[in-house]
Specification:
Layout lengths: L1 E4 L4 E3 L7 H4 L18 E3 L10 H13 L9 H5 L3 H43 L7 H5 L6 E6 L19 H13 L2 E4 L4 H8 L5 E4 L4 E4 L11 E5 L5 E5 L6 H5 L7 H9 L6 E4 L4 E4 L8 H12 L5 E6 L2 E6 L5 H11 L8 E7 L5 H10 L3 E5 L10 E3 L2 H18 L2
Parallel strand pairs: 4-5, 4-14, 5-6, 14-15, 15-16
Antiparallel strand pairs: 1-2, 1-3, 6-7, 7-9, 8-9, 10-11, 11-13, 12-13
Helix pairs in contact: 6-13, 9-10, 11-12
Bound molecules: magnesium ion.
Magnesium ion (MG) binds next to loops.
């Protein structure tokens, strides 16, 4: 867990983020990070993990032993066999004393960390106020306008889970999204493949963008017919739609079986012996999950992924929450997907429309940034921990996202009475 600060705010990144120190790889192997934040004043708080001996603790013990004079421990084995009851009692006392001391130390560390987290959490609320507590600040500027809603999926509508195939949203959340979509144009923008996120959400009332916005399905617009990479297609109900896939030329490189070393299979083969590693086909993005990989093997995961993509200069590596993502090098991200969808839904006039984007991941920062820099909407960061963001507001978790969506519906109903 890294704590960092810049001149304006304290920053707490995701627990155990993938960085130079955790991966212990050269900077040339590091994954690309979309948004850049100040790297100044990093403060690392060690995390204790059950069953894992911290190497620093081991070194500490080695140093203590080498610098201490011989004691009872150094007596020979025969003498130990002749231990007296007094010795036994003394050793027991030493153990109890050590355990008590350990408890005290761990309790103190735990207390300090909790205090630090509460302080940083308070700092987050100051810089990025709760979208629930500051609901009026969001809806007052929306009076007389249409709210357009953009929602990330993992960590926003569904909890982050160990198995990415099981990131199901609750029925209550699905009902909340369905209700809000009745009042506001709503789109899901996910790093998952569009088909997969549709399977999870299962609502026909929404627009969907998969692969971090590189696969957008929207309503038919004659004006987009000349747009490169935009084709006519049909949705699951057989309705004609526009399909925009700006990275379509990369698909053969990533998946075509006739190629001797296509990317998806190479990544799967290169990581299949790493326990817990999982490679996911997200169409224009291949995700290598390491959430279930032992931390000591994260370096291996990064190295194996790098070994594959080093042969593909037109692919790049980004990272999300315990996932490495291989994607095409194109000038396209979730921010551009928001702009495209607003145009596609004929909602690009900021005088009449207030876009709101809710997301939890680094890739959502591109969308937050578009809204902030365009001064035409609000980003809402979903995070229980403080971290630097281009968002304006925050929500703690998917449960608060659901409450926010319900509040929007209530507000809309009462404001039109
Ligand atoms: Mg997410």
């Amino acid at each position: 867990m890294d704590l960092k600060s810049n001149h304006t705010a304290l920053v707490l990144a995701d627990p155990a983020p993938l960085n130079k120190s955790t991966l212990r790889v050269s900077s040339g192997l590091l994954p690309y990070s979309g948004a850049t934040f100040s790297q100044n004043l990093f403060l690392t708080v060690p995390t204790m993990k059950a069953g894992i001996l911290d190497i620093r603790t081991s070194n500490c013990l080695d140093s203590m032993e080498s610098s201490s004079p011989p004691d009872k421990k150094s007596r020979d084995f025969n003498n130990d066999l002749e231990s007296t009851d007094t010795d036994v009692a003394y050793r027991a006392w030493l153990v109890v004393d050590f355990l008590c001391l350990s408890d005290f130390i761990f309790d103190t560390i735990r207390g300090v960390i909790n205090l630090l987290l509460r302080t940083l959490s308070f700092a987050l609320q100051l810089k990025y106020p709760s979208a629930l507590a500051s609901f009026d600040l969001i809806t007052n500027p929306a009076k007389g306008k249409r709210i357009a809603l953009f929602l990330d999926y993992d960590g926003t509508l569904s909890p982050i889970v160990d198995n990415p195939d099981c990131a199901f949203m609750s029925n209550d959340m699905r009902a909340a999204v369905k209700n809000v979509a009745e009042f506001f144009p709503t789109a899901i923008i996910s790093g998952r493949s569009r088909d997969k996120v549709y399977e999870f959400v299962g609502l026909t009332e929404l627009n969907y963008a998969g692969s971090h916005g590189m696969d957008i399905m929207g309503p038919v617009r004659q004006s987009f017919d000349d747009h490169s990479n935009c084709i006519r297609s049909t949705d699951n109900q057989g309705k004609e739609v526009n399909l925009f896939q700006p990275a379509s030329e990369f698909l053969p490189m990533i998946y075509e079986n006739s190629r001797p070393s296509q990317v998806f299979n190479s990544l799967a083969n290169n990581t299949k012996d790493i326990r817990g590693a999982k490679v996911e086909n997200n169409k224009f993005c291949v995700s290598v999950h390491y959430r279930n990989v032992d931390e000591k093997d994260w370096t291996v995961v990064a190295q194996r992924v790098h070994d594959v993509i080093r042969n593909y200069p037109r692919l790049r590596l980004t990272h999300g929450r315990k996932v490495l993502e291989v994607r095409p090098v194109i000038n396209w991200d979730k921010g551009k997907a928001v702009t495209f969808l607003l145009e596609s839904l004929e909602l690009s006039n900021c005088e009449d429309v207030l876009p709101i984007y809710v997301g939890d991941d680094q890739t959502d920062e591109d969308a937050f940034k578009v809204l902030r820099e365009g001064n035409c909407g609000y980003g809402i960061l979903v995070s229980s921990l403080p971290k630097e963001s281009n968002a304006f507001f925050s929500l703690k978790d998917p449960q608060e996202v659901m409450e926010f969506l319900k509040s929007l519906v209530v507000w809309k109903k009462t404001s039109t009475l």
